[in-house]
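Weekly modeling sync, notes
Attendees: S.R. (lead), two postdocs, one rotation student

Agenda item 3: backlog of single-chain predictions. S.R. asked that every request posted to the team notebook include the full sequence so nobody has to chase files. The rotation student volunteered to paste the first one in as an example of the format we agreed on. Action items at the bottom.

Example entry:
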Amino acid sequence: MPIWNYRCIYHMTEASNWPSIQRSGLLSTSRLLDLAGLSGAERYAIERHQRLRSQLLPNGATIRDQRPIPPAALARCLTGDMKPEDWYAELNRRVFFWLDPKRLNRQRRASRRSPQIVLVIDADCLLSRYASAATLTAFNTGNARRKPARRGRQTFVPYARWRESGWVSEAAALETSCRPLSHAPVELAIPGAIEDILETVVLVRRLEVDEYLSL
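Predicted structure, as returned to the notebook:
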């Protein structure tokens, strides 16, 4: 059985989103679109197409670009009948956390010109509330450059299943070699909204321009 030994996990967002998080918690892009009242073609374009730049929604929330996952690259690594627009939708309906702060700082490089807020989360506290909804991934699902990992809906392995059998379900569904139990998860994702996220936060760090996370 794989070993879960993460005391803290991490989420980073534009500093301008902090007031919204304090009011409503952490929301997926899809939930932010709900709050912004967007629908129809405008919503479809945001939710199911690659975003080449960050976007400011009518309710004041900023959502990140998706430049590392161009549709042509996704088309080459998606399994089954999934299309790039399906993958964008899968990502947009989830809230993501890094398990390793080094990966957060890699993401930070892409946003180093704007202030960010980092939430350091008590992992056990979060999972005590959301374990049944949580999934783990073996790679950065928001990147399809260079040699992208094969991916599909089963890339998001339920937390409980991972605790039982590691990456077996991912390999079986995607018809790939099974990753060893020692292969550490990269992301934890929860669909929808985490309205009580502040009750799980142990530290809030504001990163100024060109500042990186150090703990």
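Discussion: group reviewed the output briefly. The mean pLDDT is 96.
Action items: rotation student to repeat for the remaining queue; S.R. to check formatting next week.
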